Amino acid sequence: MPAVCLTHAFGLDALMGILLVDFLRYLLPAATLAGVLVLLPADWVASRRVSTREPAAGQPRREFLFSMSTVLIFSVVGALMVAGVQAGVLRMYQDVADHGWPYLIASLAALIVLHDAWFYWTHRLLHQRRVFRWAHRTHHQSVAPTPWAAYSFAPAEAVVQAVFLPLVLTVLPLHPSVIGIFLVHMIVRNVLGHAGVDLMPRAWLAGWWGRWLTTTLHHDMHHADGRFNRGLYFTWWDRLGGTEHPEYRQRLDEWLRRAGM
């Protein structure tokens, strides 16, 4: 998803600024989580591991390189979005008082829910056989993903994900702070989903979080079998769409029992 950088002078400098922000927004969460997994005690990490496979040799490097092309595409779309805001085509406002705090909070919640729906249904499209080979196969080369896989997309998939925010801005006025929080939330959840190790508190996973929000196990099972678990943040679309893995709930319960819950 493109970063937002409002500037009065739109040009190469603005594009480079957006590129830097998008690069850091990917690099910092991915590198932080990868580093944490190395520094934590091996026994503890093993107790929290949900993936039954190991990443292939050279996989993190490949994931990083593909992620760089995604960062570039997100940045170009972000620059076009800035131009759209300046032209008055896209609806962004600067003063919270224009719509009030209740609207600001509601717009953030709406943005996350809308993005989850966008991701689920475009994800289903990307898994259609004729589309998968050239648009989504790159991401699924990571059968056992690492945090670096969060942006490991083919260019076509990167475009599909990048256009979500500009499309929303054609109809829904958003404050820059809402967009910033949304973008941070998106990449953090994405990085965690590809870690192969679930760092969430076990009590959360045994309760509301485990029932309604996607877990690392949820997405790891998707990488193992792309027919199932296609949601991004929430589990409800998979349930409604009949794409929740039939063994997901059982495997989550088994993992919690092994973890002492």
UniProtKB/TrEMBL annotation:
<feature type="transmembrane region" description="Helical">
    <location>
        <begin position="64"/>
        <end position="89"/>
    </location>
</feature>
<dbReference type="Pfam" id="PF04116">
    <property type="entry name" value="FA_hydroxylase"/>
</dbReference>
<keyword id="KW-0472">Membrane</keyword>
<feature type="transmembrane region" description="Helical">
    <location>
        <begin position="23"/>
        <end position="44"/>
    </location>
</feature>
<keyword id="KW-0812">Transmembrane</keyword>
<keyword id="KW-1133">Transmembrane helix</keyword>
<feature type="transmembrane region" description="Helical">
    <location>
        <begin position="101"/>
        <end position="121"/>
    </location>
</feature>
<dbReference type="InterPro" id="IPR050307">
    <property type="entry name" value="Sterol_Desaturase_Related"/>
</dbReference>
<dbReference type="InterPro" id="IPR006694">
    <property type="entry name" value="Fatty_acid_hydroxylase"/>
</dbReference>
<protein>
    <submittedName>
        <fullName>Sterol desaturase family protein</fullName>
    </submittedName>
</protein>
<feature type="domain" description="Fatty acid hydroxylase">
    <location>
        <begin position="109"/>
        <end position="243"/>
    </location>
</feature>
